[in-house]
Amino acid sequence: MKLGFLGPKGTFSFEVAENYAGKSELVEFATITEIITSLKNDEIAEAIVPIENSIQGGVTETMDALIETDGIFVKEERIAKIKHHLMANRKYEWKEIKEVYSHPQALAQCRTYLEKNLKNARINQVSSTALAAKEISQKDFCACIANIACVEEYGLTLLASDIQENEWNQTKFWLMSKTQNEEGNQMSLLFSTKHKPGALYRVLRIFNENQVNLTKIESRPAKTELGDYIFLVDLEINDAIDSVIELLKAECKSVKILGRYEGGKL
How far apart are CA 200 and CA 133, in angstroms? Predict the structure, then answer.
């Protein structure tokens, strides 16, 4: 069985995938959109994708890919503690480092450290922390912010540990497949409202009146006319959930179930 992840090796996605994989063959992808497309086309059986960070919020590429792709579902949720480390191809003094590479979210989560210690270094954004590590492994007087696994993976030297600003930094990952779970304590779904006054209020009232606890609600542009949105909702399942879904279908312009799953696994 093939399991897709956001590469290259050494990303937090790779770490989560490796912990889950068992006997699965890990398949590396350059973008989240490519992972979702490959899952849809049966090129892989399952996929690990990041969906939300506790500091930076929702991962918009994942949300947009799920909005645009039918027939794939959340099978399981995994939560990873995010720790960022500074590394280079050899030991440097801070003043010797001319450039720092990393993913935009990692750079944002380590802004205070960079401003204090490397304020004169040029900041370069790349598509993943592991790609940053791979690039600077061959560059002198450069450093990167990456997962600790990258030290061994790319033969780097650790310069500083745990440089993130927030010790509660966590990322939620979803394990996706084309098979729906029949059970689970959580559910995620997408809905769009009709264009009339109070439309969103009437949808939220359905959840409230049936005592369904919403743990997250986030909007994304529907990519049609301005002001048209699709809402992503995470909720805790109760005995009323089946009737709630039917009420939502009657009230909303569209409803798509992303899946039932067990939440909160570290």
Answer: 44
Take residue 259 and report the two structure tokens written for it: 């899946």
Identify the CA nearest to 99 among candidates 83, 120, 116: 120
The helix-helix angle for 32-40 and 60-68 (nearest 10°) equals 30
**Could you report the per-residue pLDDT of 56-105, keeping only the tens digit for each?**
889 999 999 999 999 999 999 999 988 999 999 999 999 999 999 998 88
21: Cα separation from own chain's centroid: 18
Structure tokens, 9: 């090796």
Residues of the chain with pLDDT under 50: none
Domains in the chain, ordered, with CATH?
2-81+169-177 (3.40.190.10), 85-160 (3.40.190.10), 186-261 (3.30.70.260)
What does DSSP assign to residue 141? Answer: T
| Beta carbons of 173 and 78 less than 8 angstroms apart | yes
* Full-model pTM: 0.86
- Between the alpha carbon of residue 150 and those of residues 48, 89, 136, 248, the distances in Å are 19, 11, 11, 45
